[in-house]
Specification:
Distance between the termini: 108 Å
Structural class: alpha+beta
Number of strands: 7
Radius of gyration: 31 Å
Helix content: 25-40%
Order of helices and strands: HEEEHHHEHEEE
Largest sheet: 5 strands, antiparallel
Strand order of the largest sheet: 1-2-5-6-7
Number of helices: 5
Shape: extended
CATH topology of one domain: Pantoate--beta-alanine Ligase, Chain: A,domain 2
CATH class of one domain: Alpha Beta
CATH architecture of one domain: 2-Layer Sandwich
Strand content: 5-15%
Length: 271
C-alpha cells in the first residue's frame, strides 16, 4: 500500500512538473513570437522607408536623364510627375536652384546682393572681397578684402582658402556679423544650380547644351494622406553620353539662422 501511495505521489509530481514546463515553454514561445513580430514590423518599416527613398532616387534619375537628352528647355517644363513601382513622385526644382551659390558667386553678384539688403556700396564691396579671399587658395588680399594677416590675433575668424562647406561658415568672414548672415541666408546656398541667365547661354542650339550646368532638383513622394516625403539633389551635367550627369550633393536642409531682425545699422556699416 505504501508503494502504491509513493507511485501515485511521484506520478502527481511528474504531472505538475510537466504542466509547469508547458506553461514556461508557452511563455517563452509567446515572448519569441512577440520579438519576431516586432522585428518584422521594424523590418517592414525600414523596407518602406528604403523603398520610398529608392523611388525618389529613381524619379530623380529619370528626370535628370530627360533633362540631359532634351536640354535646358526641359528645365522650364518642371515639375514633372513620375510613377515608380506604383508610387507617384513629383520632381521639380529645389529652392536652392534660384539662390546664390556662395562658392560660385563672383564679386558683382555679392555686391548686388548686399546692396539689395541695404548695405552701402562700400560695405558691400568690402564684404564681397573678404568672402572671395576667404575661399580662394592664396594669401593675397583683394583691394577691399582680408587674408589671415588682416584678422585679429587669436580671433576665431580666419580665412580657410577653400570652398565653403556650409552657409553658416560665412560668419567666419571678417566683417560678416550674425545679423548680416541672417539677412543674407534666405538668398544663398552651397547647393546652388547654374543661374537662369547662364543656363540660357549654356548652348548655341535651340535645345541648349547642358554641359557644365548644375541643376538642383527636388523629389516629393506624393502619399495618400496628403503628406510628401522630400529628397533634394544637385546634379552636374557633362558631355559624357554614357553618364551625362553626376549627383554631386544630397543636401539635408538649408541653413536657418532665424529672423533677419533689424541689427544692420543704416548705411550698412558694422555695429
Amino acid at each position: 500500500m505504501s508503494i502504491a501511495r509513493r507511485h501515485t505521489s511521484q506520478t502527481g509530481s511528474a504531472i505538475i512538473f510537466v504542466l509547469w514546463m508547458s506553461v514556461l515553454l508557452a511563455v517563452i514561445l509567446a515572448g519569441v513570437m512577440a520579438m519576431t513580430q516586432t522585428e518584422l514590423r521594424l523590418g517592414n518599416g525600414r523596407r518602406s522607408l528604403l523603398s520610398e527613398r529608392e523611388a525618389m532616387l529613381s524619379a530623380l534619375d529619370l528626370v535628370a536623364y530627360d533633362t540631359a537628352l532634351v536640354g535646358r528647355s526641359y528645365i522650364a517644363s518642371l515639375p514633372r510627375s513620375v510613377t515608380v513601382d506604383g508610387q507617384r513622385v513629383r520632381v521639380g526644382l529645389a529652392p536652392s536652384q534660384s539662390r546664390l551659390d556662395i562658392n560660385m558667386a563672383n564679386d558683382e553678384a555679392w555686391i548686388a546682393l548686399f546692396t539689395r539688403l541695404g548695405e552701402s556700396e562700400t560695405a558691400a564691396r568690402r564684404l564681397a572681397d573678404q568672402i572671395l579671399d576667404w575661399r580662394d587658395n592664396d594669401e593675397m588680399a583683394r583691394q577691399y578684402g582680408a587674408e589671415r594677416a588682416d584678422y585679429p590675433a587669436g580671433s576665431l575668424k580666419a580665412p580657410q582658402n577653400r570652398p565653403f562647406i556650409t552657409v553658416a561658415e560665412l560668419v567666419q568672414v571678417l566683417d560678416m556679423t550674425p545679423q548680416r548672415l541672417a539677412c543674407a541666408a534666405p538668398y544663398i546656398t552651397v547647393f546652388g544650380g547654374t543661374p537662369a541667365g547662364e543656363v540660357d547661354l549654356a548652348g548655341s542650339d535651340v535645345a541648349g547644351s547642358m554641359d557644365g550646368v548644375r541643376v538642383a532638383f527636388q523629389a516629393e513622394l506624393v502619399q495618400p494622406d496628403g503628406g510628401a516625403g522630400r529628397l533634394a539633389a544637385l546634379a552636374l551635367f557633362g558631355a559624357n553620353r554614357a553618364r551625362p550627369f553626376d549627383w554631386v550633393a544630397f543636401p539635408v536642409r538649408e541653413f536657418d539662422p532665424g529672423g533677419c531682425g533689424a541689427a544692420v545699422p543704416a548705411g550698412g556699416e558694422p555695429a
